[in-house]
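Risk register update: the risk of archive-format incompatibility is retired. Evidence:
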Amino acid sequence: MGGEYSRYINQNRIWTLGNFQKVLFVNPHYFGDIKIKDKNKITRFFVTSSAGRNYKFLLDASQRLKNEKFDFEIYITGRTSIFNSKKIYKNLEDIYFFKHNVNYSEFYNIIENSDFIILPLNPNSKYDNEYRKFRASGSIQLVYGFLKPVIINEEFANIYFLDNRNSLLYNNNNFYEIMKKAILFNNKEYKKIQNNLYLLEKEIYNISINNVKNTMKSINGF
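Archived output:
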């Protein structure tokens, strides 16, 4: 398999959804005729329930923000229900909405009506570190396709071409502050970061198209 794998790499025949080494970055993220909306008056966050992920720091930040009387909601979907209503703190029950196993129409509607996507990756987690090496998050596809700014740990950002212009980056110590910043964004600030995300999406589209062409040239010799 090693020799065959090397041949495929040399022929540019291996594509990945993340910006990983040795292989070509090709990222399809078209979800149809989506609606680009202004920021909600009550900030709405979206999170995917994933196996093997720790959500405690999200819950802790949410509890602190609610105690400080900030208005926000968090919607959770996912094929796994490991992160569910039984896992949250009791005083958060009115702002956490679990929508597991919804159909695509409802799923897209939830994304369209959200303001930010939270991707709670932890660089200290062996499971999450796979997303820096050879796995790509499905949530990133939603970020690109729906133009929803993502809240992501800064150590994972460059894999997805993300920075402080088009995303909200946090570290191990300031997730609460970044989540608060997202809530406090006015619509003008929100549209600025969303427009930068739009520019990134167009850049990714062009990179992907060119890499597809490179593969065709390598295989067909034209």
